[in-house]
Specification:
The protein has a two-stranded parallel ribbon with strand order 1-2. It is mainly α. It is 52% helix and 8% strand.
Length: 118
């Protein structure tokens, strides 16, 4: 895909076992989040060690210089989200102008009149 010019960003959001348990408890007690929790979550949780091995194997076999994995600590959800957005902007924005576009003169004139700006 990368050889064909596709920009690829692979992020793995990592949480600790303790954070996962905290989130499960929150989902159990918060009716608005209960939909996020299923039997499979608990079943899969019992195989945490197997998942760690599989994740390490995946990262080793599929992280390439031209398409690396980015490991994002995600115990803190806002931090994890900002980290992923930053990675995406860096990768997907390469070669693109990310400067804000200039204000349309017509918009500026209308705003000047509406807001009584000098």
């Amino acid at each position: 895909m990368v050889a064909d010019g596709i920009r690829l960003a692979k992020c793995f959001l990592h949480i600790t076992p303790a954070e996962q348990i905290r989130r499960f408890k929150d989902r159990l007690t918060n009716p608005l989040k209960r939909w996020k929790l299923s039997y499979e979550d608990f079943h899969n949780r019992s195989r945490w060690a197997d998942y760690e091995v599989a994740i390490e194997d995946m990262l080793e076999k599929t992280s390439l210089k031209r398409a690396p994995w980015y490991l994002v600590p995600a115990n803190d959800k806002p931090y994890g989200r900002v980290a992923v957005f930053t990675i995406m902007i860096d990768i997907l924005g390469k070669g693109l102008s990310l400067k804000p576009r200039p204000l349309d003169p017509k918009v500026a004139e209308m705003a000047k009149q509406l807001f009584d700006l000098a």
